[in-house]
UniProtKB/TrEMBL annotation:
The gene is rlmM_2. The lineage of its organism: Bacteria, Pseudomonadati, Pseudomonadota, Gammaproteobacteria, Enterobacterales. This is Putative RNA 2'-O-ribose methyltransferase. Gene3D superfamilies: 3.30.70.2810. It comes from Proteus mirabilis. One of its GO terms (biological process) is methylation. It comes from the Bacteria. It is an enzyme of class 2 (transferase).
Length: 59
């Protein structure tokens, strides 16, 4: 991760909570939210090389 950058993990424990967050949170209204990535499990071995295509896939 580059200096001055960061990320947030919304970790959901109850079934349906991820859907509720997706419906109720206005991600466009967050100050620095540029990308949204949803996954089923925490991705521990994710490298910059592996996420290059994310902006293309989320467009």
């Amino acid at each position: 991760m580059k200096e001055g950058s960061g990320y947030v993990i919304f970790e959901c424990y109850q079934e349906g909570d991820a859907d509720k967050i997706a419906r109720d949170v206005d991600f466009r209204g967050l100050i620095f939210a540029r990308q949204l990535f949803v996954c089923g499990e925490l991705l521990k071995e994710l490298t910059t090389r592996k996420i290059v295509l994310l902006p293309l896939l989320t467009s």
